Amino acid sequence: MNINLGIQDESRAQIAAGLSRLLADTYTLYLKTHNFHWNVTGPMFNTLHLMFETQYTELALATDLIAERIRALGHVAPGSYSQFAALSSIPEETGVPTATDMIRQLLEGQEQVVRTARSLFPLVEGVHDEPTADLLTQRIQMHEKTAWMLRSMLG
């Protein structure tokens, strides 16, 4: 079926590809945050356990918003571990780091998602894709705030 949103097919494909990278980063960060929620130990256990739960819940909701925007642009959203692994710029963690290292890794992940989202702005602004620009702005605001909170825990 032909899609006529006022954005050329090639531009929609490029935006969808960028959003797929953002989705992969977001999902990878979600999985890492959930893992750390389950496995954190130490004197900050309760604080971090609850904080990580808040963060992974927000990330889970964000994956849906990003995937739905990809679909609205007429493209298929990636949804498998192998696709996310190939697209994500966030390294997975298979061990159980210390609580401080968990915070540091999540901070790095939050900042990486900001960079991934920010990299799409020239393209979406160039084709006047305001809905995607709005989504990116909201994601950047949330990740910058979360990064600030994690950074504050590191002193």
Automatic annotation (TrEMBL):
Q: Which domain of life is it from?
A: Bacteria
Q: Which GO terms describe its molecular function?
A: ferric iron binding; oxidoreductase activity, acting on metal ions
* Start and end residues of each Ferritin/DPS domain: 17-154
- CDD domains assigned: DPS
Q: Which InterPro entries match?
A: DPS_DNA-bd (IPR002177), DPS_DNA-bd_CS (IPR023188), Ferritin-like (IPR012347), Ferritin-like_SF (IPR009078), Ferritin_DPS_dom (IPR008331)
The UniProt family comment states: Belongs to the Dps family.
Q: This chain belongs to which protein, by name?
A: DNA starvation/stationary phase protection protein
